[in-house]
């Protein structure tokens, strides 16, 4: 039996400004949870839809010298396992990363050892980093009707045959049998809205 492959839903459109590494290429690295580790964290920060967020975290128990050679930390090499990862507190790490980056950018923006363009870029990134977060938009819930439409649509596709070839007609008939007074065009509009909300996979 052949399985119908569906394309993943497209990523949502986002306004993104990367904050790391710093304009001169310096990454944001933290010794965690103390100055002697045992972990070294590389933090990735970005401004996403008006909010500064920790969007990536690299965890290791060693440093890397200028030649790229790994150097075990003061505690030696330790295993990065599930308990170790659970001990990482994302909120505290995000705050520490923001503070570290802010201090780095403040220094870079006034450093006479750097060229003017790099200083200005550091100043712009600092302004972005320290800007108040934009109020987060909360998506409206899909609603029981769209959830019902999506469930029927996905059921039709999974069933294959004529239902999969004409899922909108299948959904319309099912809703009418449920006692709903709804037109086929209305159902097609509901299918489109359900797809936009991610309840139905994107069309191939």
What is the structural class? alpha+beta
Strand tally, please? 6
The residue ranges in which pLDDT falls below 50 over 5 or more consecutive positions are: none
Overall outline: elongated
Largest sheet: 4 strands, antiparallel
Estimated radius of gyration:
25 Å
Average pLDDT rating: 87
The helix content, as a percent range, equals: 40-55%
How widely separated are the two ends? 20 Å
Contiguous helical run count: 7
The ordered string of helix (H) and strand (E) elements is EEEEEEHHHHHHH
Strand content: 15-25%
Task: Lay out the secondary structure.
Layout: E1 16-18, E2 28-34, E3 37-48, E4 51-60, E5 62-64, E6 70-72, H1 82-86, H2 90-110, H3 116-130, H4 144-159, H5 161-165, H6 167-177, H7 184-196
Antiparallel strand pairs: 1-3, 2-3, 3-4, 5-6
Write a concise keyword list for the protein shown above:
elongated, 204 residues, 7 helices, two-stranded antiparallel sheet, alpha+beta, four-stranded antiparallel sheet
Describe this structure in words.
The chain has 204 residues and is an alpha+beta fold. The chain contains seven helices and six strands. The strands form two sheets. Strands 1, 2, 3 and 4 form a four-stranded antiparallel β-sheet that branches. Strands 5-6 form a two-stranded antiparallel sheet.
Quick structural summary:
It is built from 7 helices and 6 strands; from the N terminus they run E-E-E-E-E-E-H-H-H-H-H-H-H.
């Amino acid at each position: 039996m052949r399985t119908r492959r569906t394309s993943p839903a497209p990523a949502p459109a986002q306004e993104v400004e990367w904050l790391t590494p710093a304009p001169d290429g310096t990454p944001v690295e933290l010794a965690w949870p103390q100055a002697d580790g045992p972990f070294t964290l590389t933090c990735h920060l970005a401004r996403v839809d008006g909010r500064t967020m920790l969007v990536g975290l690299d965890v290791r128990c060693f440093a890397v010298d200028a030649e790229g050679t790994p150097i075990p930390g003061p505690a030696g090499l330790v295993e990065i396992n599930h308990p170790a990862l659970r001990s990482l507190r994302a909120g505290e790490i995000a705050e520490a990363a923001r503070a570290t980056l802010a201090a780095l950018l403040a220094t870079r923006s006034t450093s006479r050892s750097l060229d003017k363009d790099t200083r200005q870029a550091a100043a712009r990134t600092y302004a972005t980093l320290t800007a108040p977060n934009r109020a987060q938009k909360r998506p409206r819930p899909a609603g029981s009707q769209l959830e019902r439409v999506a469930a029927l649509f996905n059921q039709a596709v999974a069933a294959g045959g004529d239902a999969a070839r004409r899922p909108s007609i299948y959904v319309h008939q099912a809703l009418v049998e449920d006692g709903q007074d709804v037109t086929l065009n209305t159902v097609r509009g509901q299918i489109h809205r359900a797809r936009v909300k991610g309840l139905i996979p994107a069309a191939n």
